[in-house]
Amino acid sequence: MQTPFTDSGALDLETLAREVQFLHRVGVQGMTWPQMASEWPQLTFDERLAGAEAIMRANKAVDRATRPAVVIGVQANDIETAVKYARHAEKLSPDAIIAIPLNQGKDEAKQMEYYSAIGEACSRPLIVQTVGQMSVDLVLRMAKQIPTLRYAKDEAGATLPRLTEYAKRGQILRGVFSGKHGPTFLDELARGAVGNMPAAGFADLYVASWKAWMAGQREEAMEVFSKTLLLIMDAQAYGVEGQKYILQLRGVFPNTKCRRPETESQVLDDQAREAIRRTVNYTKRWFKA
Question: Which of 167, 161, 165, 201 is nearest to 184 (CA)?
């Protein structure tokens, strides 16, 4: 999920709840907040708690039969704070929690301590979001030692060979999700990924591709995903502000306000907005809501 802010820069809980409703309408199986694309480092401790509570409330209000799972991010820059987030999540009872590693996953012993502490603080299934130098071997060793660690969102290194490595190592995890907007999403599914955690703005196209692929309708999956790739390129090129602009064009966000600084190549200038509008206008015939 992307994090909405008011024009003055405050966390916009009303729009965050509207994003939950949008994701329910487009048929996602789950939603995750706050992670990389949610600008989590720019959120205060209290905003993190308030946002998690708002998402849980909004999700409980949708149709129970089609209600998506909620995954709450509990990562922090130190173990003590991460444990506080995990304890708060325990009270909310989301379907799972997720955590980005400390310091890009460089110190394996520290990662084991960090994830063990999170696992002890919250009984919900734990997803490790790999980044930086985290190896498949480390993830699987942690899964053996931490009872709640059951899934990975793998964004470290080259996705496809890592998925093959997970598959060869056996069923220690219940599943591995891919990330990075999933430009090789269908190949990832073929190698055993259970899904992807992409940006929210065009999640319905991933849903359609996933459903077709899982039903054995491979050509249909490729047809839909070929359209998804156009939006993936925009999401990668124009960063979080561009992803928010897609949500604005779809009537979910009122603005593209960000706290996270973008790189010079990702500035959302008039030409960037026109490029995104062009793509959305072309792909909207495949949108679900």
Answer: 161
pTM above 0.90, yes or no: yes
The DSSP H or E segment spanning 131 is none
CA-closest candidate to residue 54, choices 17, 84, 91: 17
* 288 C-beta neighbours (distance < 10 Å), count: 11
Element containing residue 7 per DSSP (H, E): none
- Output the pLDDT for position 171: 81
Query: By three-state DSSP, how is residue 127 classified?
Result: strand
Q: Which residues of the chain have pLDDT under 70?
A: 105, 263-265
Say if domain 13-222 classifies as CATH 3.20.20.70: yes
- What is the DSSP code (8-state) at residue 208? H
- pLDDT the model gives residue 167: 94
pLDDT at 134: 92
E-only strand ranges, 190-280: 195-196
| Encoded amino acid at 223, one letter | E
| C-beta contacts of 105-112 below 8 A and 24+ residues apart | 105/130, 105/131, 105/132, 105/133, 105/134, 105/138, 105/156, 106/132, 106/133, 108/138, 111/138, 111/142, 112/138, 112/141, 112/142, 112/145
132: left (phi over 0), alpha (psi -120 to 50) or beta: left
Torsion angle of C-alpha atoms 150, 155, 159, 162, degrees rounded to 10: -50
d(CA 199, CA 2): 7
